Amino acid sequence: MPEMPEVQGLVDFLAGRAAGLEITKVTVASIAVLKTYDPPIDALTGTTGVGASRRGKFVDLATSSQGADAGIHLVFHLAKAGWLRWYDQLPATVIRPGKTPIALRVGFGDGSGFDLTEAGTKKSLACYAVRDPQDVPGIARLGPDPLDPTFTRDQFAQLLAGRRTQIKGVLRDQSIIAGIGNAYSDEILHAARMSPYALAASLDDGEVTHLYDAMRATLTDAVAAASGKPPADLKDAKRRGMAVHGRRGQACPVCGDEVRSVFFADNSLEYCPTCQTGGKLLADRRLSRLLK
Question: Please, are residues 176 and 144 in contact by the beta-carbon 8 Å criterion?
Fold first, then answer.
């Protein structure tokens, strides 16, 4: 799943490519991907890209025009298996709905453009045409961005206070902190040397500070690693940068212990026992804390 660093990489790429270009076509290949109807998606045709920004894990492509629909935003969330495929010269082939992973195609006046694609059978990719990004329910519910310069350690502490919820789940909750998903929550907790099962409310002042610093440093480094890379290279860059996530059975780069996994219904977490749990193995069951 694309998370903050990869989404920021896509945003930076789009901001450099789409700004100043007229949108000449918007083709919806999967009607399920479109979550809005007013303004119609066709209203983007004839508008000009003016910039791109990230809102949590949402991409916001802003446009302008001289007509009544000035200020329309194309907002999309790539969900678990979505991606953006950029073309310097958009293919001329006709998209066949249901026969391709392409969900939406956007073409620009210079012949370039991009497809939003989604692999697999579980379709969660979502696109919105809105006048105000806050009209997107997922954006309206977002918590603070952890890399916002105004987001302080004390604000972070207030978000954790009283939450008798495992810290892994708190970091992934977009209504609490925006932009972090399964992969980077694993990486942050490894950097902080903290168990994913630790309760947020149980953390002392020192642990909160250590977690805050690990979160900011991990995400800052990942965003820097994604910066300047084209969409086709972002996934591999993410995988190369992981210390524990997706590395089950490999050696922890810090201590050399074996990276372990805990499996759930539709995902897993990875951690290092030596670095994070005092050598104890986490039980592979949702309701268990630690193996006795």
Answer: no
Please choose, from the candidates 241, 227, 288, 240, the residue with its C-alpha nearest in 3D space to the C-alpha of residue 262. Answer: 288
Domain extents in the chain: 4-140, 153-276
According to CATH, the topology of domain 4-140 is N-terminal domain of MutM-like DNA repair proteins (3.20.190)
Say which residues have a Cβ less than 8 Å from residue 143's Cβ, sequence separation at least 6: 159, 173, 174, 175, 176, 177, 178
Q: Who's near 76: CB < 8 A, 6+ residues apart?
A: 58, 59, 82, 104, 116, 125, 126, 127, 128
Tell me the CATH architecture of domain 153-276.
Orthogonal Bundle (1.10)
Residue 287 vs residues 111, 165, 270, 283: alpha-carbon distances, Å: 53, 12, 17, 9
**pLDDT 10s digits, 141-159:** 999 999 999 999 999 999 9
DSSP assignments along 134-201, one per residue = GGSHHHHT----TT-TT--HHHHHHHHTT--SBHHHHHH-TTTSSS--HHHHHHHHHHTT--TT-BGG
Check: pTM over 0.85? Answer yes or no: yes
Largest CA distance in the chain: 67
Q: Which two tokens stand for residue 50?
A: 């003016």
Q: Which tens digits make up the pLDDT trace of 190-203?
A: 999 999 999 999 99
119: amino acid identity, one letter: A
